[in-house]
Design a protein that fits this description.
Chain B: This is (Fe-S)-binding protein. The complex is a heterodimer of chains A (297) and B (463). With 297 residues, chain A is of the alpha/beta class. Chain A is built from ten helices and twelve strands. The relative contact order of chain B is 0.10. Classes of the chains: A alpha/beta (297), B mainly alpha (463). At the A-B interface, helix 4 of A face helix 10, helix 11 and helix 22 of B.
């Protein structure tokens, strides 16, 4: 199911968690890792001069610089590259989100793995934490896995998957991915819905009725799709969705959260905060996979 | 006649040469070689005699050195108003002297001419409006650039730029396959949000053939997607050519006349092959100048027109809004002070000043549009025109040049600048990076898409 993993990395420590997960998965499931790095963002009208993604400095990309970046990446991930059967380094220049999408398409990647944000190491002025992720997650044909905070106990395998649904169309794709992963990797699967009661004062009976209805809806929606897969349970909790998703993941010791990405908003100022997905990514103690399109699930 | 490996009188014609020249970091060796480059005076003089027509001759002769052009030049204004930046001085001391000496000039003179032609003039043609005799220094500098190019005295990046056009027929290394693939990719990426969205390639007999700037497929393919979305919503029958899609001409900035002709013929060949009713170019000023305003003459078209009516993106957009093909949701109009950058290349060169303002009347809440002063055909160059943006050697001078636009924008008090030209967009971005005045900048396409009133049947089915 994961034959080719595209690890999008700036090479900065903020992406080390993503790298660890990508390589561990590749090792465990026999996948190829494409270590993909966008060296710089084009500037100054022509493409010879770019702003280095990490330092923000203006650089001229030539063979020497390219070789230097590759060498840096190779030594940064040296042990990990040696630990897997297939790995290659691909570098390019361009707008990171665009180039990640281009590479995922060109390589026909099954999964993109990346950090949530470039963190403090990014001196590139127009970047803001998560802008690349937002754009990639929206448009990628394959699932996008984000690793922001790692659990210390992570050993590279998945045992418990939490699938969070809001019953949207995209959630169907996310569900398929979660189910296939659970089947293939032999995991327990929790189907979860958070009843959004944030900012509302509701009658308790009303809440309980809604919880019952949501449980029934999960059963009706996903039950028939389960086939012979039995290791699943259904939970519906009320609260603020991102908090509840993170809570159940913690309670179930989940090592993977799967949910849909369906924000249409790409304006960085509007989209950077506020979405459930983003809050889950920032808070969860395990990798989070967002699925938008049905192609690679 | 020593010619360098990179710096010589021969244009870049092969991919190999191109990559080798690109590999010369920052043009270090290139500029060193330039110091040794001989001037072929006979060839230069022969070229002047053959190509310098009566208009240029007359202009050089009748210039009264009155200095009325001085204040018209933004580079004069931002460079301490030194006499060396007076347009008439700039052209008389370069082209004027070259003609007077019948081409018998030396390397140092040619290097001075190069510096003047590419770092002291953006060919914005503003001086021509203020000259009592109608002398246009921008036009003459374009001519001078051609002479310099033929002798090998051209900035490194522009030698590469015209080489790109010669090798790939695009200002960047985008091949036909890359281009067609990008169109498919963009249609695919957006088909979910815009059901039925297509980017038809090589459709014969469509109403519109769309052409763009190679930077779009290379780095910003969403611009192509945005064009597709707007054509889709407007219900246009349109297409893009697989060959002849690239409308820009760095060769025009480099002074590579032969290449200019080749490029524009490539675009016109697509028009003749696909027979659209008309052609529309992207939001780019110099691309329009190269393909629509000057191109017909390079191509030797007797009527001075492209093979089919060829309009700038702003003209199509205004028409689509005017005729109701595109409808704006009034609640989504821009409700913050916003200003507009007039691109020299389609405003001063073609008079498209009112059509952009008509677009703003639809997309900006009344009272929020603030004009720069001066504006329309009197507006100043963005600061990076004529290839200035891309030349590393003159980066410092370019950054100084941006100050005029910075002052103009600051005076409007606006934080949002609409720049329907790639080059202006770049210059304004660089201006923000350099001076950090806290502004945002945008093309028209993404703004309009954000405020469209889309008919229900074009939206994805309700979930």
């Amino acid at each position: 199911m994961f034959k080719k993993i595209l690890l999008a990395t700036s090479g900065a420590p903020s992406t080390f968690g993503a790298a660890r997960v990508a390589f561990d998965m590749a090792k465990r499931y026999g996948a190829e890792v494409v270590v993909f790095n966008v060296m710089g963002v084009p500037t100054k009208a022509f493409s010879q001069v770019v702003n280095d993604v990490r330092t923000g400095e203006e650089i001229e990309v030539d063979d020497e610089y390219r070789a230097w970046v590759e060498e840096e990446l190779k030594s940064t991930f040296e042990k990990q590259i040696e630990s897997v059967e297939y790995a290659k380094i691909v570098t390019t220049t361009g707008v990171p989100s665009r180039e990640i999408l281009r590479a995922a398409r060109a390589e026909d990647a099954d999964l993109i793995v990346m950090g949530a944000s470039s963190g403090d190491s990014s001196a590139y002025r127009k970047g803001y934490p998560g802008s690349t992720l937002q754009r990639v997650a929206k448009a990628a044909r394959c699932p996008v896995m984000t690793v922001h905070r790692e659990t210390a106990s992570y050993w590279g395998g998945f045992g418990n998957i939490v699938f969070a649904t809001d019953f949207s169309k995209q959630a169907e794709n996310a569900f398929k991915f979660a189910l296939n992963s659970a089947k293939e990797l032999g995991c327990d699967l929790t189907l979860f819905h958070a009843l959004d009661i944030s900012g509302k004062v509701l009658d308790q009976n009303d809440i309980e009725d809604k919880l019952i209805a949501a449980r029934a809806r999960i059963r009706e929606t996903y039950g028939p799709l389960m086939g012979d897969f039995k290791d699943f349970d259904i939970e519906v909790w009320e609260g603020v969705p991102y908090v509840e998703i993170v809570k159940i993941a913690r309670e179930r010791s989940a090592d993977l959260i799967v949910l849909a990405h369906h924000s249409r908003e790409l304006d960085p100022e509007l989209a950077s905060i506020g979405s459930t997905l983003e809050q889950v990514i920032l808070r969860a103690g395990c990798p989070v996979v967002s699925v938008s399109k049905p192609d690679k699930v | 006649m020593p010619e360098g490996k990179f710096c010589n009188k021969t244009p870049i014609n092969t991919e190999e040469q191109l990559k080798a020249t690109l590999g010369d970091k920052g043009g270090k060796q290139y500029y060193e070689e330039m110091n040794q480059l001989d001037v072929d005076s006979d060839k230069l003089w022969a070229s002047i005699q053959k190509t310098m027509k009566s208009r240029t001759k007359t202009w050089l002769e009748i210039c009264a050195h009155c200095g009325l052009c001085a204040e018209s030049c933004f580079l004069y204004q931002v460079n301490g108003r030194v006499p060396e930046q007076v347009p008439s001085y700039k052209i008389q001391s370069t082209l004027g002297v070259m003609v007077k000496k019948k081409g018998k000039v030396d390397n140092a003179f040619m290097q001075m001419c190069m510096e003047t032609a590419w770092s002291k003039c953006t060919c914005c043609n503003r001086c021509g409006m203020y000259c009592p005799l109608g002398i246009d220094m921008g036009v003459m500098f374009s001519y001078l650039r051609g002479l310099l190019y033929s002798q090998g005295f051209v900035p490194w990046e522009l030698k590469i730029g015209s080489g790109m056009h010669r090798v790939y027929r695009a200002q960047m290394d985008v091949t036909t396959e890359d281009w067609v693939e990008t169109c498919e990719w963009m249609a695919e990426e957006n088909e979910e949000d815009w059901p039925g969205l297509e980017i038809p390639v090589d459709k014969v007999g469509a109403d519109i053939m769309y052409t763009c700037n190679a930077r779009e497929p290379k780095h910003y393919p969403e611009d192509i997607a945005e064009a597709a979305i707007l054509f889709h919503v407007a219900g246009e029958n349109w297409t893009v050519p697989s060959e002849g899609w690239e409308q820009t001409s760095l060769s025009m900035f480099a002074g590579d006349w032969e290449c200019c002709k080749d490029n524009v013929l490539n675009v016109y060949a697509a028009l003749e092959r696909l027979k659209p009713k008309r052609a529309i170019g992207t939001e780019c000023g110099h691309a329009h100048r190269a393909t629509v305003i000057e191109g017909p003459y390079w191509a030797g078209r007797p009527d001075g027109q492209p093979p089919v009516p060829y309009i700038h993106y702003v003209e199509w957009l205004a028409e689509a809004l005017r005729t109701g093909k595109l409808k704006i949701d009034p609640t989504k109009r821009i409700k913050e002070p916003v200003t507009l950058q007039d691109s020299c290349n389609y405003v001063r060169n073609q008079g498209l000043k009112d059509v952009t303002r008509e677009i703003l009347s639809y997309i900006v809440e009344p009272g929020y549009f603030v004009e720069m002063a001066p504006n329309k055909e009197h507006n100043y160059c963005c600061g990076g025109g004529g290839g200035f943006n891309g030349i590393g050697k003159y980066r410092e001078q370019r950054n100084v040049a941006l100050r005029k636009k910075m002052e103009q924008i600051l005076d409007t008090g606006c934080k949002l600048v609409i720049a329907p030209c790639h080059n202006c967009w770049d210059a304004i971005r660089d201006l923000e990076e350099e001076y950090k005045i806290g502004i945002r900048w945008s093309f028209l396409k993404p703004l309009v898409i954000g405020m469209l009133d889309v008919p229900k049947h074009l939206l994805p089915p309700e979930e």
